[in-house]
């Protein structure tokens, strides 16, 4: 058993990311894969991976990969 704070500290030590950033990065990579391999548009990929706000998705995608999600279509 460990406290929540201890879990967060250990996770950050192992991955060098907070849990929230790690989950967001995972969702963005999944969205990128959806855009590359399927015929889904940007909004469908964003909503399918759990992003409710399309502008937040686009900003996060650009921060993660260095290019906007529309370039994969």
Layout of helices and strands:
Layout lengths: L3 H12 L3 H19 L4 H7 L5 H12 L8
Helix pairs in contact: 2-3, 2-4
Assembly annotation: single chain
Number of strands: 0
What's the overall geometry? elongated
| Uncertain parts | none
Beta content: under 5%
Describe the structure.
The chain has 73 residues and is an all-alpha fold. The chain is built from 4 helices and no strands. It has helices spanning 4-15, 19-37, 42-48, 54-65. The longest helix is centred in the middle third of the chain and has 19 residues, at 19-37.
Structural descriptors:
4 helices; mainly alpha; about 70 residues
Briefly characterize the structure.
The protein has 73 residues and is mostly helical.
